[in-house]
Amino acid sequence: MAKSLLIFNESDEAKKRQYVLDFYERFGEEATKKAFRVDRKLIYVWRKRLSAGHGVLSTLIPFPTTPHTQRVMETNSLVVEKIRQLREKRPRLGKEKIKPILDKFCFNKHPPTISESTIGKIIKRKHFFFQKQGRIYHQPSEAYLRRMRLKKTRLRVRYAPKPVNFGHIQSDVVEIVEHGVKRYLFDAIDTRMKFAFSHPYNRNTSANNCDFYDKFKSVYPTAITSWQTDNGSENLGQFEEKLKKEGIPHYFTYPRCPKINGVVERFNRTIQEEFVQCCDILPETREYKKAPGEYLLFYNTERVHKSLGLKSPLDYLITEGVMSKMSMTRTST
Description:
- The chain is α/β, with parallel strands linked by helices.
- The protein folds into three domains: 12-60, no CATH class; 77-126; 156-320, 2-Layer Sandwich (Nucleotidyltransferase, domain 5).
- It has 15 helices and six strands.
- It has a six-stranded mixed sheet, with helices on both faces.
- Helix 5 (77-89) crosses helix 6 (95-109).
- The longest helix is centred in the N-terminal third of the chain and has 16 residues, at 12-27.
- It is elongated.
- This is Integrase catalytic domain-containing protein.
- It holds the Pfam family rve_3.
- GO terms for molecular function: nucleic acid binding.
- One of its GO terms (biological process) is DNA integration.
């Protein structure tokens, strides 16, 4: 304390107040008021403090203006626990994505809901940061693009498409190495609806891409009208022939232009951050292939998207009239 006061003795604020007192003694009240906007009452207060302190300059230190009693943010414990659970399970889920899920929880459990900014404060103050450290975002290699030679004319996409209707699919493959085991994550997403699907495979082949296409088609809620990929070998051969037989146009992006496939590239990052980096299941087990199902169910039914007006893909389908709530709850007999 004494050291801090000693430092303040030489500060500009203490010297300024002493200078004002000296100026007042020399030139009087009117000149002091015009020069420093300090009236006689404040001068007397400073004089009294300086006299009580036996002329020590540290007595002119301004008193702290912090309130003695500060407000404390009070939030229902159920709400805080729900935020903790969401952040612990999905560490990359931000306050904007948590807000709609929390509103549904508060509606069912009846605690008072909170604003988006309050969610952010709770995350920061409670230190709800559970993402694993030391992970590096996957940077796909472009070496194969330089070796690729086009043998026939392909349908090309020059710019990132902005389809008006549903059915335009973008797909990509991500190479993942976990616990020394290499896996290939096949991803596909509707450009407008943001309905996504993902499945891991041991090899990056055209045959596996055909199998992935069949799986995607079985869960996709509408009809596929076109398919967009990069120039990888898994998108040629059997897969290209399969799309041709089903009459689905196959569009290719230009080499070294990942922005054209921007929607699926962003989904690649999302599923790595929110699922792959949080998954503790060993890659060589059967459970590993089933693990993405839970996350995809969350992604397509609960996780909201800014591009959809903070709605999930299925809620957006219902809003657009493509699906109904009855079709979501219908069971087969």
